[in-house]
Write a structure and sequence with these properties.
Number of helices: 6
Helix content: 25-40%
Distance between the termini: 28 Å
Strand order of the largest sheet: 1-2-3-4-5-6-10-7
Structural class: alpha+beta
Shape: globular
Radius of gyration: 18 Å
Strand content: 25-35%
Largest sheet: 8 strands, mixed
Length: about 220
């Protein structure tokens, strides 16, 4: 999930290295920015069941219609309730359009039958003028939660940030109602970012209280 917001303004770099990164093909992106420690990064074994899975990175525009639909249904199954309870509401067409953003890249998790069991989507971008790797989504089927896979996927995003100067952090948005996700992000080292909206007084005694938080984690360049 990613939202528009107004807060602290930062000056944007005069050049745009992020755009150059986003123009690279998937193989080059993996080699120069994901920088996996081993060629075996595409294989993952569930430590609880020993079931085997494959991982792969692909641009949104190269996802098959079947895989995109599977990812959308996973988002709907895990997060629709949070959207419906929020000020954003659940808007399927808007969410699907966001998921098709050409600069998004997906790290897909599939079982041996080729069925999508989880994914994360990311984009090197600017937030308030600051270069970041934005985590748009991270979703797993129930049987893969608590297996360490979420940590592995977030580790890939951190690797992209560390290997993509001038990026210095990973950023994401989380609904405050999603306590499980909040706990995971906090345990992973994410903190509330300075651009996250704060409660504020409105006209006629009303008050705006955000139902989401923008979090970030600083990473060191490699």
């Amino acid at each position: 999930m990613k939202v528009l917001k107004q807060s602290v303004k930062r000056r944007r770099a005069t050049t745009n290295p992020i755009e150059r990164v986003n123009q690279k093909d998937d193989d080059t992106f993996v080699k120069e920015h994901l920088c996996p420690s081993t060629p075996a990064w595409t294989k993952w074994i569930n430590p609880k069941t020993q079931d085997k899975f494959t991982l792969s990175l692909t641009q949104a525009g190269k996802l098959s219609a079947e895989d995109l639909d599977a990812c959308f249904k996973l988002v709907e199954g895990t997060s629709r309730g949070d959207y419906e309870a929020s000020t954003f509401g659940w808007k399927p067409s808007k969410k699907l359009a966001e998921m098709k953003s050409p600069e998004l890249r997906y790290i897909m998790v599939k079982d041996i039958a080729g069925s999508v069991r989880g994914f994360t989507s990311l984009m090197p971008t600017y937030e308030e003028g600051e270069p970041v790797v934005y985590c748009y989504e991270i979703h797993l089927k129930p049987e893969l939660r608590g297996t360490g896979l979420s940590k592995t996927l977030m580790g890939f995003l951190e690797s992209v940030a560390a290997n993509t100067p001038p990026i210095g952090k990973v950023m994401l948005t989380c609904f405050l109602s999603n306590e499980r996700a909040l706990a995971f992000y906090q345990k992973s080292g994410f903190e509330k970012d300075e651009i996250s909206p704060e409660p504020r007084k409105l006209r006629f005694g009303k008050e705006f209280v955000p139902d989401y938080v923008i979090m970030s984690k600083v990473v060191s360049s490699r």
